[in-house]
Amino acid sequence: MGIEQIMAVSVGLLTILFLALSLKIMGLRRAHKVPHSNETDSKAFLDAVDAQRNFERYTSYTLILFLVLMFFNADPMGFLVLNIVYVVGRAIHAYGVIVKEQSANPSLTWRMAGMKLTFLTILVSGIWIFILKGFGW
Prior knowledge:
Elements: H1 3-31, H2 43-71, H3 76-98, H4 109-135
Helix pairs in contact: 1-2, 1-3, 2-3, 2-4, 3-4
């Protein structure tokens, strides 16, 4: 699988995850009768909005890093691993915020695991870009 195909699959999966988060917010907005100003006491709704915003912020930046890695012709296997780690991290984070933190026994474990994978992806991508461009490896 080439680097372009890896990117295409990742973007497709991330798009599906983003739409799932959006649909969750829409359902909670209807269920809790939340106005468009988002003024509500519904923790479930506010957590879902937070998960979506968090996804938007980190995914935008990470996709820029991935595009730079593509531009510099990064190793496809390493690029595949980074993409898998990122997509899994974002899915775990969303699951942790929307499902696990709303359960009878709330836990930050899933959310934190997702953030660690996200930060790891960003860190490795940044270092890799520095090495590819700075040293031409």
